[in-house]
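Handout, section B. The chain below has 396 residues.
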Amino acid sequence: MPLGTLHKLCIDAEAEEAVLNHSKGFKPLYHAICALSSLSLVLGGQQSFLIEAFQHYDWAISTCIGCAWAEPSSLFYLHFILLIYDICCVAQGIPDQDMWAQHLQHLARLMYCLRKDELDKTQAYILWYILYLDTQSSLAGNDEAGSCVRAHLANGSFLPSWTQLQYAHEDIDSQNDSGNSSTVHDLALFMCKQFAKLSQLALRMRKETKEGKSDVAMRQKCIEDFHYHLYSGWTRRYQVILVRTSSEARLWVDPLSRTMLDFALLQYSTTVIYLHTSMYPGQSLRLSPMRKWVAQHCSKILSLVSNQSLGQHHLSFPLFLAGYASKSIQEKVQAVKLMESMQAVGLSNGSLRSLALLKLIYAEQEARRGSLVKTEDVDWIGFSHEVGIKVVNFSL
């Protein structure tokens, strides 16, 4: 699901109240909330709250030690909030010694403790949110990421169905609506899993390339196999939706289905571009057979984003990748303009950091244009390390 809008997540007042209620009897969670609240003020320009943010963070950690009695739900909220805090710190260049990755490891273990049949919408949303954050961190080339992704791939059953949650809490008269939403949910779930698989395959390929354990032919064969399963799985599911929309206008009455489909379409195009441009250093040298395919999906992303509200967190990474991979100057400019329109999105201003990196990549690509080294040689993950821009998340 989409992550959120502007400076907030997609959770309502009732959900916020549920988290606050957990904090009343669990001091670590209380301090974590205070730490993130103080940090948000700091990021808004009120630097005087920085010490307070650090203090509450330290208290959240110290008071949590020895809390063996804590309920899994309380610990789940605790590590989620601290994860957000530490990702924000990375985005601001504050040294964290990869604490964000340690929170992901804790969350991966806690996922198995939460009973799927007792999850409310808030916990369900956060589970999906965490998975997306971890996937994106892995795709950014962070070796320490991937704990929750691997837990999901090993046992995806702990992730709840959005359609089941929706229809369990609403009075739906038409079974047809539920069936239509399930069709879209199946497509969205497929893309979520493929996105997760892609992130771990990329981490493995980069590691093997660095260690010299695989050759180009082996990597290309692996990429071709992934592309085949991605394309066939997507086509089979998407054709069902196209057939139903031709005869059932009511399919799009449900806003959740529309949102899920738009998100899945973006993830599909993002996955295709990443698969053929960013799996390992130097991959773009062998891009020629897929140039047209990648170009089409760069255009699709720009078109999809142009027709959506730019106040949504999840749009930044697809835009970044489309701008990086496109060979059209016009599309590169459009990607930057759209990302500039998103500068206020997110708590940590991660979109600003992503935009700065993309502009540096453009400059490097231009500098290489006309030389013996092709423009495509810029490995954006390796380049981000060279220029000192650590990317954990693109938009939070």
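Note. Residues 1-160 form one domain. Compare this with the example in section A.
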